[in-house]
Batch of 4 targets.
Target 1
Amino acid sequence: MSSLNIPFWKHKKLTEMSTGEWESLCDGCAKCCLYRLEDEDTRDVYFTNVHCRLLDTRSGRCTDYQNRSVRVPDCVTITPEVLQDPYWLPRTCAYRLVAEGRDLPDWHPLISGDPETVVHAGQRVCNWTICEDDADELENHLVDWIE
C-alpha cells in the first residue's frame, strides 16, 4: 500500500509534517487552553475549568494564535520536542496520540471530515469553562471530566 493511501499522521514523523498537516491535528477541543495544576513529585496533572482569556469559546480556537506566547507567557507551544514527554496533555489530544503512536478518535475532524464532531462527541470544553479573568484561586476550579 502506498503512503498516498495512508493518512499522513500514520506514516510521517511529527518532524516531517508540513505546517498545514501539523495544524490540522488540532481538533479544537480547547482542553490545552485550560489551566492545570501539577504535583511536581508525582507529575499528576489536575485540570481546572478555567480557560485562557485568548480562547474563543465558540470556535475552540485562540483569538491571537500568532502572538499567543507573547501575550500569555505560560502558553506552551506544542512542538515535536515538547511531545517527547506529552504526559501533561489530555489523553484525547491528537498531538499526544500521534506522539505515542496511537490513532485518532472517530470524532476527530481528520477522521470524520466534520469539525463539529468534536462538539457532538462532547469533547469541546468551552461550554463548561470560565475565563481566567472571572476565576479566583485555581484550586477552587479543579475538575475531573477532562480525559
Target 2
Amino acid sequence: MNLSIYATRQQCGAAAAAFGASRIRQAIAERGECRIILATGASQFEMLAALLGEPGIDWRVVTFFHLDEYVGIADSHPASFRKYLRERFIDRLPVAPKAFHPVEGDAADLRGFCDRLGDKLCEKPIDVAFIGIGENGHIAFNDPPADFDTEVPYLVVDLDEKCRRQQLGEGWFPTFDDVPKQAVSMSVRQIMKSRCIVNTVPDSRKAHAVKITFEEELSPMHPASVIRLHGDCRSFCDEPAAAELSAFTRELCRVK
C-alpha cells in the first residue's frame, strides 16, 4: 500500500511536496519539461507551501493545469480555485512558468471552453498530478457515484450535499445556499492517465474518506478508491486523517 502516515499535517504536506518535486525534476531531466496538475482546498495549504520551497526545479519549463472550478464563479470570487492557485502558488514562483491553464467556470460557452482546455491537456501526458480526497471520497469534483468510464477530460458535474457542505465548512462561502450546485471537474479517467499521482490528505475531517479509499470496496461509490489501480500513486496523510484505518494499516504505514 503506497500510503504514508505522518504525525502532523505539516510533515504530511512537506513529504508529499518532496516526493512530487523529485518526480518533477525527473520529468525535466528526461523530457526537458514537466506538465503538472494542481489541486486546491484547505488540505493542500502545507503541500503547496512546501513545494514552493523545493530546490532545483526550473519552473520556466513547467506547464500547470488544475482539477476543477465552480460553475459561474469569477476569478475574483474568494472561493475561486484559479484565484487560489494564482495567489498561493503561481504568483509566488521565483520565475514565470511555461504556462498556466486555468479552468474558467464562468466561460460564456462552457462546453466549448472545456473541450478546448481538454485538447490542451491531452497534447502530452501529465507528469505529476497533485490531488486530494474530499470528505465524501471524491477526487476532483467527481462525487459518488463517479463516472469511471468517460474519456472526456473535463466534465460539468452536479455537486452532492456533502461536498457542498464541505466547501461551506472550510469557510469558502457565507451560507450553504451560496455554494454552487455545479462545477467543472477533470474526469476520473483523465486523472488516472497521469504518470504519477501525489495524494495529500490531512485532517480528521477526511478520516472516513481515507478509510473507504484504502480499506473498502473499489467502487464508483468510493471515487478515490480508483487510485489503488494506479501504478505510481503515493498517498500522504496525518494521524488524524488515518484515525479510522485498521490498527494493522496504521502500523504498516506510519512513518517512524
Target 3
Amino acid sequence: MFIIAAICSPPCLLFSNLTDIVALDYKTSAAHSVVSGLKTAVAIDVHFSLGYIFWSDVWERNIKRSGIDGSGTTIIISNIGVCDGLAVEWRTSKLYWTDTTHDTISVADLAGKNPRKLLSSGLYKPRDIALDPDNG
C-alpha cells in the first residue's frame, strides 16, 4: 500500500495549475509541487492505492502518469484530441477520458493499453467525467 504522507499529511488535495501538479496539505495549508515543468496540465485524477497520478496535457494532446511522488513520468496515451476530463476507476483499474476535439469518451487500462471509444455519437464537446463505481 502506498503511503500518502510522502507528499502531504491526509487529508491532502492534489490539483493542477497548468504547469505543475501541486499537493496542498489540508491541515497546514502548505503547498508544494509534485510534478513541475508541464506544458498545459488540465485534468487530473489519482489512484491512491497503486500510487499513481494521471493527468492530461491539452497542449501536447496526451495523457501522462507518474508515481504519486512525481517519479517515473510517462506518456500512456498519445495522439488524442483535447482532454478536459479524466477519471480513474480504482476497482477495475480503468482510466476514462473525454475528448472535445473528436467528441468522444474513451477508456483504457492504467498503462494506456486496450483503448476503446465508449461514446462517439450524440456528444458535443464533452468536458469532464465522473464515475460512480457503486452504481455502474
Target 4
Amino acid sequence: MTEDDIVQFVATLPRATAMMASQATGAPEVAWGDWFFFYDREGETPPDRRFPFGTIVTKDYDGWDTFSQLNRPGIFRLNIAVGRHRFEDLMGYSLAEHAKKQQLFDYTALDRLLPHPVYGSQGWVSILNPGGTTGEQAKSLLTEAHARATERRRP
C-alpha cells in the first residue's frame, strides 16, 4: 500500500477531502508534503476549522516527533483518529494507561498497528507503511474514523 493508494482510498469516502500541506495551503513548512484527511460536509469548511480524521506523515518533526524514524528512505506513517473506545479495543488498554505503556512499542516497526507515538493518549493509532498485514485494517479504520468525523459534524 502506497501513500497514493491511501489518498485515493480516502477520496472514495463521502465528502472527504485529502489535502497535501504546502506553502499554498498555509501550512507550516515542517508539514509540507504531509497529507491531511478531513470530512467537509459542505465543501466549504475554512481550513482553520478543520480537524483531520487521518494523516500521512513522511518525515520526522525534529524536536517533536522522531519516534518512527520517518527520515529513512521510503518510510511513511499513516495516522488515524480512532477515538477512545476503539483505541482501547485495538490496543487492549485505556488512554489513561498510554503513558505507562508507550515504552513497550517499537515505533519503527513496519506494517504493524501501533498507538500513535505522540497522540496515542488522544485516541490515535498509526501504521508505518501499511502492507499485507495491515492494509485492509487501515482502510477499515479510515472508514470508521471518517464515519466518526461525519457524525461529529452533523447539525
